[in-house]
């Protein structure tokens, strides 16, 4: 009998440690909404959410970046010469710059609108709107008209990126978000990686319908944007608490699972009535502006590289048009790989700030090589490091912000200020690289170097603030973000 019992004990399966850890973190045993699904079933549900949400928004973001940053490709394809842009009138910088003023101003009301109108209607409408504007770019005959269309483009695009950031943050617990932000940004960054190659292909239509090759870049990409807007209307999902209504995407039981996990993570699914005063009072929180400054400084680098890299490769490093367009791709592919690796380990280790500091250090090294070394191969390696640094930092910063705030309207406000800071970074990034500084563009490179140094300083200051606040929580002091047990993520 004893022998039988011993054998039985040996054959008893070991507990699933991952399942036990999951139960502990999300109160699996005590919440029937979560307990209704096994861990395997939950992963399957979230894979469906990822495909429907992250992939769809990422594809839309790819078109957004393609439409926003194709000026550099059109420039080397002859746009500046045909429209009379030169270093005297500084027209290229003006056309690049005017986009960002309405883009920054319109973001706070846009994040309120997406909550009120709903993601499907709001996002698909503005995508269609800027697609029409892009087609119009292909038919302008003066840079002044193009500048006017760029203002309209900024109005339409203002609600897209903060809307996507906000929507993603409402669907995932804090320590599952960076992987999704990385996936979203990775898909989008493919526009920067392969936009030059696509532009070079479209340039070959030069002379068709009596239109220059650079005009076809805008026309074809604008048509693609309008088509994507219709697909987006069919695929975009609503906020998780309303998802059963979104074309039967999730059952009520599955939606309850998503809501329950958010409840246990930060308890901010429910949306309180909108009051303008309460919404604006979120601006009294210093960390909101710390996140905005960080995003402004990293996008100073990303926009500078996106707008001027083809020009630098052609004029500064001496490559011809074809090589300048195609050599844009490899640094962005490398940054995509780094994003995914950092997203995985950032979520696993619950770390954000140290990753940002590492990327900034990488950016400082890369910009130093690009700006102050004469060998073309070494300078191109510097392009790799600088591109990886600023682009890999974007999804980390989105998650850094999302992990450290609570409340739907505060989340909307912070998404707007964060991306608004990014718009200001666009203004800086497009104005510090001046045609008169060609071919070295030393002042622009120096500005990007300073931006990376300032980012390191701000992360260190935020880390000190978070450390002190978490210590007060551990000591039984004041709650963070109005929720018991909530602690900041470093």
From TrEMBL:
Alphabetized InterPro entries for the sequence: MFS (IPR011701), MFS_dom (IPR020846), MFS_trans_sf (IPR036259)
Record-annotated membrane-spanning stretches: 49-66, 86-105, 117-139, 151-172, 184-202, 214-236, 288-309, 321-341, 353-374, 380-400, 412-432, 444-464
GO cellular component: membrane
Keywords recorded for this protein, A-Z: Membrane, Transmembrane, Transmembrane helix, Transport
Span of domain Major facilitator superfamily (MFS) profile: 53-471
Organism of provenance: Coniochaeta ligniaria NRRL 30616
UniProt cross-references to PROSITE patterns, sorted A to Z: MFS
Primary location: membrane
Membrane topology label: Multi-pass membrane protein
Cellular localization per UniProt: Membrane
Segment forming the signal sequence: none
Protein name: MFS general substrate transporter
UniProt key word S-adenosyl-L-methionine: no
Keyword Calcium (UniProt): no
Example of a GO MF term: transmembrane transporter activity
Top-level lineage group: Eukaryota
């Amino acid at each position: 009998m004893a022998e039988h019992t011993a054998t039985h004990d040996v054959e008893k399966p070991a507990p699933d440690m991952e399942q036990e850890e999951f139960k502990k973190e999300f109160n699996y045993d005590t919440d029937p909404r979560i307990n209704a699904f096994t861990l395997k079933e939950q992963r399957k549900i979230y894979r469906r959410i990822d495909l429907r949400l992250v992939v769809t928004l990422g594809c839309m973001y790819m078109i957004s970046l393609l439409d926003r940053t194709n000026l550099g490709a059109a420039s080397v394809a002859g746009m500046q010469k045909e429209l009379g842009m030169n270093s005297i009138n500084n027209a290229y910088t003006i056309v690049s710059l005017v986009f960002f003023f309405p883009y920054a101003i319109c973001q706070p009301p846009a994040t309120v609108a997406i909550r009120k109108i709903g993601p499907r209607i709001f996002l698909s409408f503005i995508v269609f709107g800027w697609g029409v504007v892009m087609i119009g770019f292909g038919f302008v005959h003066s840079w002044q008209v193009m500048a006017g269309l760029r203002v309209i483009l900024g109005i339409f695009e203002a609600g897209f990126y903060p809307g996507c950031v906000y929507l993603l943050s409402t669907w995932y617990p804090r320590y599952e978000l960076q992987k999704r932000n990385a996936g979203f940004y990775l898909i989008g960054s493919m526009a920067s990686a392969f936009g030059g190659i696509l532009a070079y292909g479209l340039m070959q239509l030069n002379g068709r319908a009596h239109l220059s090759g650079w005009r076809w870049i805008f026309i074809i990409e604008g048509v693609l944007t309008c088509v994507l807007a219709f697909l987006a209307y069919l695929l975009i999902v609503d906020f998780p608490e309303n998802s059963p209504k979104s074309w039967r995407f999730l059952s009520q039981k599955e939606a309850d699972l998503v809501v329950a996990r958010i409840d246990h993570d930060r308890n901010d699914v429910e949306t309180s009535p909108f009051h303008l005063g309460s919404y604006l009072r979120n601006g009294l929180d210093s960390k909101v502006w710390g996140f905005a400054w960080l995003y402004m400084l990293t996008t100073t680098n990303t926009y500078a590289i996106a707008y001027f890299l083809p020009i630098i490769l052609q004029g500064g490093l001496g490559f011809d048009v074809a090589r300048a367009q195609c050599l844009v791709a490899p640094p962005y592919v490398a940054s995509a790989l780094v994003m995914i690796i950092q997203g995985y380990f950032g979520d696993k280790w619950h770390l954000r700030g140290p990753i940002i500091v590492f990327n900034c250090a990488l950016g400082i090294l890369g910009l130093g090589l690009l700006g102050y070394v004469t060998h073309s191969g070494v300078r191109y390696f510097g392009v790799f490091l600088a591109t990886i640094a600023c682009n890999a930092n974007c999804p980390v910063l989105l998650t850094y912000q999302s992990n450290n705030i609570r409340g739907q309207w505060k989340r909307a406000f912070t998404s707007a200020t964060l991306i608004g800071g990014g718009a200001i970074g666009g203004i800086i990034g497009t104005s510090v690289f001046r045609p008169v500084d060609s071919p070295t563009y030393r002042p622009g490179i120096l500005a990007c170097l300073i931006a990376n140094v300032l980012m390191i300083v701000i992360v260190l200051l935020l880390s000190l603030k978070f450390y002190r606040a978490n210590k007060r929580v551990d000591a039984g002091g004041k709650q963070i973000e109005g929720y018991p047990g909530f602690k900041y993520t470093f």
